Amino acid sequence: MRSLCVFIMMGLLCTSFGQEALKKKIEPRPLREFIGEAGEGVDKGPVHEVIQDQAGYEQIWRNLGLAKTPGEIDFAKEFGVISTTRGSRVSFRLRDEGDGKLNVMSISTRDIRPGLRYAIGVLSRSEWKQVNDTRL
Fold first, then answer.
1. Is residue 99 part of a domain?
2. Which listed site, 83, 100, 110, 115, has its alpha carbon 20 to 30 Å from 65?
């Protein structure tokens, strides 16, 4: 009888923890990321910026001193976010704020090196209406 009670209690505990895990939101992730180093002599770039169209995208990669696009973005269905750093690496942290709002942050290493590194994240337009303070 005691083992049956223990078994039932374990089942109830597992069920409640399982429900709690289902309630947690899944952290959003970019569909694709383009990571690289800016051209020689470029030491400044956008810290955080939303890229909404092809013209803006071309302007950004040309300002980074790149000879060609780092990767294709279908602006009819997608948009991009860019972040740059003088550290050795940069990555994104995305948080769903609810109601179609996305908070995009970037994290970079603190080891300052010559040159400039960039990360461009590609996200789906269908999921988001606003990124940080920029309406899509």
1. yes
2. 110
